[in-house]
Amino acid sequence: MTSTEIIKKLFIAFSKKDEEEFYRLGEELIALEKRKKHNVVAKELKEALFSYSNSSNQNVSKRFKPNLPIPRDNDSGFPLLEIQEFYLDFDDLILSENNKYVLTQLIREIKVSEVLAVYNLKPKNKLLFSGEPGTGKTFTAQVISSVLQLPLVYIRFDAIISSYLGETATNLRKVFDFIKNGRWVVLFDEVDIIGKNRNDEHESGEIKRVVNNFLQMIDQFQGDSLIISATNHPHILDPAIWRRFDEVINFELPDEINRRELFIKYLKVMKREKEINIDGWSKKTNGFSPSDIKGMCKEAMVHAIVNGNDIITTADLEYSFSRYKERMSVRKQGE
Ligand SMILES: Nc1ncnc2c1ncn2[C@@H]1O[C@H](COP(=O)(O)OP(=O)(O)OP(=O)(O)O)[C@@H](O)[C@H]1O
């Protein structure tokens, strides 16, 4: 089908309120654009097709309606988790060869879980992601959920920790009861909030109980979901937490080769002058995380646009580089 034919059918599906056909045609249009190598258009269409509903319940994704209501904190009434959907590709991730390989294997294991079951084997389903901020722990969980076509359950640890005695453990229980009832990729972000060393004398008894509770729940978890815990502070995690996971993936800052790939990826959105020396920028940005490089590219684009240009120049990158350098030194002072 040509894109005009698909768009016509999309309109018809929309007027008939045929949601399934609407999404199928939308995906066909995206695949067509991808085949034409219109990657930016394909990505934008993907985001538009599956963008979140701005309607009343922003914590529930459009396509995956959970059977149970989203659990909430009794005291504040805030939701304890969010169900999110992503439509990313594995190629969106720029990682070391080793991490790419390990993650590809993990995804394959999950995809062949029925075959593994014949041999009484199970895929790994409890992962720990550790690494500096902005190295892609959350993003990787989003990519895995996209590739496995499972919704991502994002656990809000700040919401789980309650000021009321005993309520934090109740919140954890509610979260695990919820995730038992579906197949998801579950991301416990910033797990070190409750994973602080249990022997730390400054920690209260309540936190210790919560850590024990969390460990027990992780241990007992039997479902088909993939559980990922992420931390920026692996050194403060209790050794008991490490043992609970089938796999630990360390997200390192990108090397020069990966930084080059990141510049190419994040500068692709806009035309750039030929003189821009990507190799030079990759060398200069030692210590930058993928998120820093993405931010630097975005800032350069904004700089170009507000100065009335539609192509990025070396001067734009120099400006955003100096801004980032400054921000990073402030960040270091705060550590
Ligand atoms: N490895 C990567 N490859 C490509 N893009 C990346 C990568 N890592 C991060 N990014 C980009 O930077 C954004 C922020 O990264 P992300 O939130 O995943 O980092 P994080 O490790 O979870 O950080 P934090 O520990 O602060 O939560 C991502 O949404 C993505 O756009």
Main sheet characteristics: 6 strands, mixed
Question: Which CATH architecture of the largest domain would you pick?
Answer: 3-Layer(aba) Sandwich
- By DSSP, the count of extended strands is 8
Number of helices: 15
Level-1 CATH class name of the largest domain? Alpha Beta
* Overall structural domain count: 3
Q: N- to C-terminal separation?
A: 56 Å
Structural classification: alpha/beta
- Low-confidence segments, given as residue ranges, are 52-62
Strand order of the largest sheet: 1-3-4-5-2-6
Protein name: ATPase family protein associated with various cellular activities (AAA)
Domain AAA+ ATPase: 123-255
Keywords: ATP-binding, Nucleotide-binding
Organism: Ureibacillus xyleni
Write the layout of secondary structure elements.
Elements: H1 3-15, H2 19-35, H3 39-49, E1 81-84, H4 97-111, H5 113-118, E2 126-131, H6 137-147, E3 152-155, H7 157-160, H8 167-180, E4 185-188, H9 192-195, H10 205-220, E5 226-231, H11 239-243, E6 247-251, H12 256-267, E7 271-272, H13 278-284, H14 290-306, E8 311-312, H15 314-334
Parallel strand pairs: 2-5, 2-6, 3-4, 4-5, 7-8
Antiparallel strand pairs: 1-3
Helix pairs in contact: 1-2, 2-3, 8-10, 12-13, 12-14, 14-15
The chain binds adenosine-5'-triphosphate (ATP).
InterPro entries: 26S_Proteasome_ATPase (IPR050221), AAA+_ATPase (IPR003593), AAA_lid_3 (IPR041569), ATPase_AAA_core (IPR003959), P-loop_NTPase (IPR027417)
Family: Belongs to the AAA ATPase family.
GO molecular function, one term: ATP binding
